[in-house]
Amino acid sequence: MPEGQPGAGILRTPEARFSVVEDYPWSPSYVEVEPGLRMAYVDAGPSDARETLLLLHGEPMWGYLYRKMIGPLVEAGYRVIVPDLIGFGRSDKFIDPERYTYSAHVTWVSALIDKLDLRQMTLFGQDWGGLIGGRVLAENPGRFARAVMSNTALPGSGAAIPGLTAQAPLSADQLKARFGMDWRETLDPDDTINAEKIQALIARGPSFYFLAWRVYSQTVADLAPSKIIPGWCVNPVSAAARAAYDAPFPDESYKAGSRRFPLLVPITADDVERTRCDAAWDVLRVSDMPFLTLWGDRCPFTYSERGEMYRSQIPGAKRAGVEHKVFAAGHFSQEDAGPEMAEEIIAFIQRFP
Fold first, then answer.
1. How many CB atoms lie within 10 A of CB 335?
2. What stretch of H or E contains 245?
3. What is the mean pLDDT of the chain?
4. Among 64, 72, 36, 66, which residue's Cα sits nearest to residue 54?
5. Cα 155 from Cα 171, distance rounded (Å)
6. CB of 90 within 8 A of CB of 252?
7. Out of 162-171, 232-241, 264-273, 327-336, which region has the weakest mean confidence (pLDDT)?
8. What are the backbone angles phi and psi of residue 157, rounded to the nearest 5°?
9. Which H or E run includes 38?
10. Deepest in the core among 84, 188, 193, 196, taking most CB within 10 A?
């Protein structure tokens, strides 16, 4: 599809921005997921492969996050589809943050699946890739053969954070007064998130680190992926990789989706998305579909449970032969353990053909 022009209120990152990207040789393809709204995706491997991998990223990433996994999966003979979520990567970006909703992201990914008529899929979801992917999986179960989740969660209508309103920002003062946290205590002076400072915060006792991240996302002057990813990885992230993660966002106007995502996590009792997630859980709790968890042991958002919610509630996660693994990895497990996780996914598919 030619580049064309985006619709009103939509930005499209100039392709020249991606000239800095190394080690991501796969060319993008494009599909309209609603009139005038273009989603980019990588389509690697044989188009007639019996098995297809759908790899969904989270925030503030794009498909580049999977560069260490695509190659091994293609070499194993699989077709690999890696979308850039709307608002990220080469996909179109709304200027108005309120155009981004949890359900809209589910609809856009489902539209991609429908347009490409993807079947016999294995889902891999991390961060928002799991929140979105869990809903997509539950709403389209006939298209999926297996699922793998890493460092994510599918929220429901259980415990909620009291006193907060859905999609309403939480101020730094509120965070300090109510939860005893200073959002800056996990940062270096240049606003880069520091992994050791995060772990020190968590080690003091039960922590709502997500709330500190939520304040950061709404308060920090420059919401740059290059300042976020080092704090959510165990291994160093190269300067070239940091530049690649920043490439989709020429300036603040392109970051409405990044700013919006933390506010869309349904942590308040009044958020209507909680009931939609409950409906997804109703499907997953009776599903015997093989379901695997591959976790990072230093993911600050799932520090205490390491995927237990999936393993304890989904029948397919309890099947004989499902070998759940925990890696020496941070939140972005694809950066820290991408090739190792690809090997586990290949073995998982082979065990459950």
1. 25
2. helix 239-246
3. 94
4. 66
5. 23
6. no
7. 162-171
8. -95, 35
9. strand 37-44
10. 84
